[in-house]
């Protein structure tokens, strides 16, 4: 069987430039402003050293030269969060509802790693990850952060979960498991992390998804409920592809991408951007070979915005999107989506 490289990212930067242009900027300006945010919201001047701070010593920005808590360079969207956040009642963070007074946090059932992004504050992260801004204190305590207003971009925070996270009250978030987009899940084609061959522009770089093949024209299913955020027909690269946004029970957003789909025709029309995918039998496309495919297959990717996957890439949708092994993602029973 062929095991050929698939040129999927041919136009990624070009599209990023197009998006930047629509916002009246150049891609360089976007990246510059991103880097500026990075420097200004994190540790000024020493980004390369940041990743080497061991997670075991999270209180360690001791060399931190110039990040006073009053740091006025915080992004404008976060003007006055501190005053609104009264200290959490003692023992409240992390305590299960049945033991309101226990000051010793229970050992977490599980942990998630959150990578700090530009504009983040602990309050914002607590709101996104726990649905409760006051949990900022839990995150600070758990990571040994003495000053909750000093965090830096790309810092890895460990988030403890002692129970199913409380969520928006009116929506009981009983999550559902994801499914594979094709009924045939094992193929000899490119796997996640396989390296592109020497003939490719991406030579030596890892394949950020998995190539699945059932047969040309086979139904491609959404992996779970969500919203279509991209439905595009490219002459090369992904060809005809869809991206669907899903929400995990943790509140984290996940994006599934299905590439090289057959073009829409009289017999089948793929769901448009904004379409809500419901149920488990929603066909979103047909296996094809549009774009840089070579042979019929579906290039399937999963990206999580909260977790460092294979490697970070700048793309048009999110400057900090991370790819994640699709097999591992689908098979992990703790990854459940919120029905929409
Ligand atoms: Zn592929």
The amount of beta strand, in percent, is 15-25%
Series of H and E elements = HHHEHHEEEEEEEEEEEEHE
Mean pLDDT: 72
The global form is globular
Say which molecules are bound, naming each kind only once. Answer: zinc ion
CATH topology of the domain at 173-337: Glucose Permease (Domain IIA)
Main sheet attributes: strand count, strand direction, barrel closure: 8 strands, antiparallel
The count of helical stretches stands at 6
Amino-to-carboxy terminus distance? 40 Å
Q: Which class do the helix and strand fractions yield?
A: alpha+beta
Radius of gyration: 22 Å
Specify the CATH class of the domain at 173-337: Mainly Beta
Q: What is the CATH homology-level superfamily of the domain at 173-337? A: Glucose Permease (Domain IIA)
Low-confidence regions: 1-10, 42-103, 167-172, 307-320
Number of strands: 14
CATH architectural category of the domain at 173-337: Distorted Sandwich
Structure report:
- This protein is an alpha+beta fold and 340 residues long.
- It is built from six helices and 14 strands.
- The longest helix is centred in the first third of the chain and has 15 residues, at 27-41.
- Bound molecules: zinc ion.
- Zinc ion is lined by residues 6, 8, 190, 207, 209, 211, 299.
Main attributes?
single chain; 340 residues; alpha+beta; Membrane-bound Lytic Murein Transglycosylase D, Chain A; Glucose Permease (Domain IIA); 8-stranded antiparallel beta sheet; two-stranded antiparallel sheet; 15% helix; globular; disordered N terminus; binds zinc ion
């Amino acid at each position: 069987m062929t095991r050929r490289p698939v040129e999927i990212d041919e136009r990624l930067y070009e599209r990023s430039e197009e998006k930047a242009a629509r916002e009246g900027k150049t891609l360089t300006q976007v990246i510059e402003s991103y880097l500026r945010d990075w420097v200004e919201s994190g540790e000024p001047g020493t980004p390369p050293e940041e990743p080497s701070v061991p997670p075991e010593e999270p209180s360690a920005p001791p060399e931190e030269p110039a990040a006073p808590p009053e740091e006025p360079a915080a992004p404008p969207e976060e003007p006055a969060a501190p005053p609104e956040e009264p200290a959490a009642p003692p023992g409240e963070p992390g305590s299960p509802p049945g033991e309101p007074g226990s000051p010793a946090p229970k050992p977490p059932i599980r942990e998630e790693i959150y990578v700090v992004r530009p504009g983040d504050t602990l309050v914002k992260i607590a709101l996104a990850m726990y649905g409760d801004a006051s949990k900022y204190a839990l995150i600070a305590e758990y990571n040994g952060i003495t000053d909750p207003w000093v965090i830096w971009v790309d810092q890895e925070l460990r988030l403890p979960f002692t129970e199913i996270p409380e969520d928006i009250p009116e929506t009981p978030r009983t999550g559902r498991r994801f499914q594979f987009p094709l009924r045939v899940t094992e193929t000899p084609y490119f796997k996640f992390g396989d390296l592109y061959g020497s003939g490719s522009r991406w030579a030596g770089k890892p394949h950020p998804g998995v190539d699945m093949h059932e047969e040309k024209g086979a139904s491609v299913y959404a992996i779970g409920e969500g919203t279509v955020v991209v439905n595009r027909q490219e002459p090369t690269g992904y060809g005809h592809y869809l991206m669907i946004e899903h929400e995990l029970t943790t509140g984290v957003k996940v994006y599934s991408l299905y590439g090289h789909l057959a073009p829409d025709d009289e017999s089948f029309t793929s769901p448009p951007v904004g379409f809500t995918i419901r149920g488990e039998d929603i066909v979103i496309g047909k296996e094809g070979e549009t774009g840089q495919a070579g042979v019929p297959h579906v290039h399937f990717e999963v990206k999580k915005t909260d977790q460092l996957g294979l490697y970070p890439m700048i793309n048009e949708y999110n400057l900090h999107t991370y790819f994640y092994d699709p097999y591992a993602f689908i098979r992990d029973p703790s990854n459940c989506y919120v029905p929409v």
